[in-house]
Amino acid sequence: MRLSSAVMFVKKLDRSVDFYTKLLTATVTACDTSAALLVGPGDYQLYLREMGTRAEHPLGAIGIQYLIWSAETLEDLRRCETLLRELTPHVTAQTVDGFDIVEGSGPDGVPIVVVYPGPEKLPRDQIIPRIYTW
Question: Where is the VOC domain (predicted)?
Fold first, then answer.
């Protein structure tokens, strides 16, 4: 079994569609005035639903806090890092247990984490310390 879809509430749909299609190299397969469906190269699906500029996403609340994306190549990871740096100056890059991690924020301030290689190429056997610091 594998995760096939995620739903993300966003403040501004157009801005988020632009960002996530670039970051994830995804294609918009359906869109209306308040929601869009993005499909990535691995056939995963990301639904974006506009909630308005007053919507909040409290860190530490129950529910999914952020997703960790896997880049296909190290060059793809660097592309993601460059895109994140265009959006926010608060981007970090580090290597932990043999894999590279880039962290930044999406257009609504939601944490974005991209790793290389993914767990299918380098299985994880411990919890990364970073999840305890948010």
Answer: 2-117
